[in-house]
Amino acid sequence: MTALRHVWRLAAAFLLLAALAAALFSVVPTRADMTILLPERGDGDLALLFRSLRQGPANRAFLIGLAPEGAAAADPRLLSRAFKDGLEKTGRFEWVANGEFRQDRAAIEPFFAHRYRLNPPLDPAEFSATGLRSALERLLDLLHGVAAPVVAEIMTADPTLRTLSVAALWTPPSAPARQGVWVDGAGRQVLLLARTGATGFDLAAQESAMAAVRSVADGLEPAFGKLRLNLSGPSVIAVESKTVAEAESRRLILISVPLIAGMLLLFLRRIAVLPVLFLPLGCGFLAGAAVVGAVFGYVHATTLGFGVTLLGVAVDYPLHLLSRARDAGGVAAAARKIWPGLLIAVSTTILAFLPLVMSSFPGLAQLGLFSVTGLAVAVAVTRWGLPRLVADQGLAAGPSPVPLPRWLRLLRLPALLAGIAAVAALGLRAESLWQQDLAALSPIPEAVRARDQALRGNLQVPDPRYVLTVSATDVETALRQSERLLPSLAALRDSKVLDGFEMAALYVPSHAAQAERLAALPPDAALRTHLERAQQGLPFKPGAFEPFLQALAAVRAGPPLSPADLPEATLRARLEPLLLQADDGIKALILLRGVRNPAELQRAVDETGTTGVRYLDIKQSAQDLMDGYRAETLRWVSVGGALALALLIATLRAARAVVMVAAPVVLSVLITTAVMAQVAGGLSIFHLLGLLMVAGLGIDYAVFLREKEGEGVRSVALCAATSIAVFALLATASVPILSQIGWTVAIGSLLSFVLGLVFAAPPAERAA
Amino acid sequence: MHERQVLRNAAAGLVAAVLACVLFAGIGAARAEAPDLEALLKRIAIKSADDVAYEERRYLGALTTPLVSRGHLRFEPPDRLIKKVEAPRRETAVAERDRLAVLNGEGVEIASMDLAVNNDLRLIFDGLRGVLSGDAAALRSAFDARVAGDAKEWRIELTPKAAGGDTRMRSIVVTGAGERIESFEIRERGGDRSNIRLLPSLQRP
């Protein structure tokens, strides 16, 4: 009867947990974007830039390559066009570009309408008698050719054909174009750029847009033979990372759950007990998420992912409990019996993690809060919850105590020496202790990143590393400031200091520049005289260009043009990512491509004396940020370590006991650090997270291995075996974050267990 | 001269005159009845890729004299039309399905247009391709087609059906004799027009 009652209670507890979880995650939003590198406080420019690069229109761009696999290569033009048409017909893209320069009426209409206000700058020489003469001669020449219909249509209003040079400026940065379409260096792969209508955050929409691209490519195969599609871009990478992470998780769960269950069954011999083991962890997880949600307003996906890692030690608590229950004469008695050890272990771990809460790195602060709350709740559930939920009947016999052999003591000296060697090794590579390559921290698999780089290189899409930001109160000022930089940047481009640059002022001049340029043109009456002189001897009728004279007079009398006035949404969309709305005005971005000499660039920018300009090396800034965060993490972790040690001293009171508990933990962390630094070629923040977990596990092992008569040895061995198995599996993941944490914890928990044994032995000499 | 001989000659002349009358009457009847579009197109349609020299005269309202250019037209059934300008400048336009590509003198593509969004260009190329490929149905879907003349000298006038406000083209007039197309004339609303005269080539009788 009682057993049945317990089953009901347990089932009710799980149902309650599930309901709470559902309720919690329907109220608290989770965020999955990779904002883990984002500063919360600190550099405003950089934060704005990161945000715009990640969320802005640039983030919705698809970089697409399509290559025929067969030997007989199709005409790249036909392939590119068919692909572009197919993509446009899906209706999922705001625009699709394949490098073709369209000159049809619809495409040139906005440029025709604003030809005397948009860039390139008006050249007064073109409007002199000689300038107009050569323009008219050019018209006659073109009228003999195939472009005659287009030329004839606009020539009386635009004899210098300014419309076409304005349009040319807006064509996307030119990748090597062969036969008019973008192709890669080898000339086989056609390249396209497309932008989805959905936001970069909407991964589901991005995923279905990717599926649409694939099906369009598949649809072309009957006509063009087997095709290989290369797809990249920020949202594509986000979707793929998610897919890879999900596939990895599924694989890991499929392997690890039966493995762990098997190991536990072998030991505990009762299936009914298995769910109990996960109850404290589940409650801890939920409580952690709830508190983080209440404090931060949202829970980051990485907090949940890494948090459950740090909480992993909570699975050990019910293991300790259940393995003693029978010998202790019941679950409740066992709970009382293990409580002193459990309290020391968990409070030390909590104290060690607590300072992370103070981090200005929101990811770390969330993680600290989550794990501290989670551990406290998990241990409380183990101590006071499980005795009410688990029946005493039918428990497996407890593990017989394993007296630790004396000879283990002999290993203490080698262990200490290994620790010293680890410190020395770490000291030797102090300079290169941390991974300097930020890319190595990226959650993106290497192959995906390589493909992205290749497509970017081929399409000459800037992967901006060097950026100038121009701060101003309004768009007009921002454009004026940018214009002051323009000549210097053009000169730098000509002298190959950089490959190119992109800025709003390249397309739309400031109002001041527009007025200045129009004022520099000959006045209406003079223009008429110039035109008459230019027409002499040419077969144009007198008065043929009256529309031109009228148009220019109207423009001079009309209002200035602002970026927001552009008639075409696609043109405004070009400028949006370059003119960011900040809290205190406008930030104009100047994206620099292929910077070869940053120092010279910076000097040239300084020489213009333009105010509000900042030079940013995004990679370096991100690196600095990362270094800062790491330093901060280390500082808080050191504080945590000191607090934990103080706690151990306060509770254990005897110096020897403190050393015996602390030594295995410190040594295994040190040795693991040295090993990982050596193997991985430097440590990352994720190794650091793994080391935190190693410390938590180490304390737990050390405390329980110290128990009288080696009572805890078997349960600790089981804990260690499961941890090692799970994290060794994690180490095989292709996602760098997972494999880094996996290796660190697998090695660390093995060392913690072995060193724990070494420092817990021998029982004969241990103080009672 | 022998009297009988004179008389015989006169009779012969009379017979010839009567014969001529009868013959010309027949021809007159044929001239009054214009050939129908389907039959005419069937005869003049180009069945395999073919090249022909042309001379184009462009009459523009803004100009006092017509502009003359020369080159070759090439049609590859069913829908590829290439206009290669050779003098006074060198340039090529390739219309294929919905695209018009412009190639410079070196054969490098310098521009491309989507015929689907350019009403005037689409009408011109659809009209020319419809005639060249002999696709009466396609022509009738976009144009009102009027055939005049007779089998020997005929003339097709194509007037766009949905001539919206943004269409500059008024009509395309195609003239020819027998199986031969002699000229295309593209007429615009403003009075501008362009006449492309196909020059007899060696390949085609």
Unreliable stretches covering 5 or more consecutive residues of chain A: none
The coarse silhouette of chain B is: globular
Report strand order across the widest sheet of chain B: 6-5-4-3-2-1-11-10-9-8-7
Question: How many strands, what sense, and barrel or not for the largest sheet of chain A?
Answer: 5 strands, antiparallel
Structural class of chain B: alpha+beta
Q: Major beta sheet of chain B, specifics?
A: 11 strands, antiparallel
**Beta content of chain B:** 35-45%
Radius of gyration of chain B, Cα only, in angstroms? 22 Å
Oligomerization state? heterodimer
Mean pLDDT of chain A equals 82
Measured by DSSP, the beta-strand proportion of chain A falls in: 5-15%
List keywords for this structure.
heterodimer; A: 768 residues; alpha+beta; 5-stranded antiparallel beta sheet; 4-stranded antiparallel beta sheet; 27 helices; 13 strands; 62% helix; 8% strand; elongated; B: 205 residues; 11-stranded antiparallel beta sheet; 29% helix
Task: Write the SSE topology.
The complex is a heterodimer of chains A (768) and B (205).
Chain A: H1 2-27, E1 30-31, H2 44-55, E2 61-68, H3 76-89, E3 93-97, H4 105-113, H5 129-143, H6 148-154, H7 162-170, E4 177-178, E5 181-182, E6 190-196, H8 203-224, E7 227-232, H9 234-268, H10 274-296, E8 299-300, H11 301-310, H12 316-328, H13 331-353, H14 362-389, H15 412-428, H16 446-459, E9 466-472, H17 475-494, E10 500-502, H18 511-520, H19 524-535, H20 546-557, H21 569-575, E11 579-582, E12 585-593, H22 598-607, E13 613-617, H23 618-652, H24 655-679, H25 685-705, H26 713-731, H27 736-760
Parallel strand pairs in A: 1-8
Antiparallel strand pairs in A: 2-6, 2-7, 3-6, 4-5, 9-12, 9-13, 10-12, 11-12
Chain B: H1 3-32, H2 37-44, E1 50-59, E2 67-76, E3 80-87, E4 91-96, E5 99-103, E6 109-114, H3 119-133, H4 136-142, E7 143-149, E8 154-160, E9 169-177, E10 180-188, E11 193-198
Antiparallel strand pairs in B: 1-2, 1-11, 2-3, 3-4, 4-5, 5-6, 7-8, 8-9, 9-10, 10-11
Helix pairs in contact in B: 3-4
